Structure formats: structure tokens, C-alpha cells
Amino acid sequence: MKKSEIMNKIEKEFGKKFRKLSADEVQELDTGWIFEILPTIREFYGGYHPTGKNAGKKKQRYEDYLYMYYVLHPNHEWDERHDQSIFADAIKYAENA
After folding, report:
1. Nearest to 95 by CA among 63, 66, 40, 58
2. Residue 68: C-alpha distances to residues 5, 51, 53, 95 (Å)
3. pLDDT single digits (tens) 65-81
4. Domain boundaries, the chain
């Protein structure tokens, strides 16, 4: 799958699912993301550390991709050994801002 296909696919799927969620469901997902998943990604997995002029924007897009993935798969058990393709897709997404 090409980089642009990866981006279009997740954005499209995310949009469809997100529009169907209630405010309470969004709040629950956001709470899990902010207090559980994102800190784990940043601390345990090391996150993503781009450099250069757009480093902040790229890091945000990386986390945006992972958030979209999380919304689409809220029960996903994050495991660095098995999630390398997810992190690689997140980097592709970030780099193609």
C-alpha cells in the first residue's frame, strides 16, 4: 500500500467512526488516550523525535495517526514487538505532512 493510500484509508475510516461516536464515547476515548496510551507511547516506546523546521508539526501528526488508530481499534493491546508496522505508518503519515 502506498503512503498516500495509508493516509487516506485511516483518515476516511476514522472520520466515519468518529462521526458516529457520542460525546460520552469521545470523552472516554480521549481520557484513555491522554492518561494511558499516549504517555506509554512517549515514555516506554520512546515516541518519535523528528528534527528540523517542521519537527513539532511532524511529531503532532505522528501522534494524530496513532490517535486515529486508537479510535479505530480501542481494545488494541499495544506491544512494541508486534506494532512496528503501526509506528512505521505513523512516521510515514508524519513525514508526509
Report:
1. 58
2. 15, 23, 25, 16
3. 999 999 999 999 888 78
4. 3-95
Measure the N-to-C terminal CA separation of the chain; round to a whole number of Å. 18
- Quote the CA–CA distance of 63 and 72 in Å, as a whole number: 14
Residues 6+ apart with CB under 8 A from 29: 21, 70, 71, 74
- Cα angle 73, 77, 82; round to 5: 100
Q: Which residue has the cell 512496528?
A: 84
pTM for the structure as a whole: 0.88
Residues of the chain with pLDDT under 70: 1-3, 6, 97
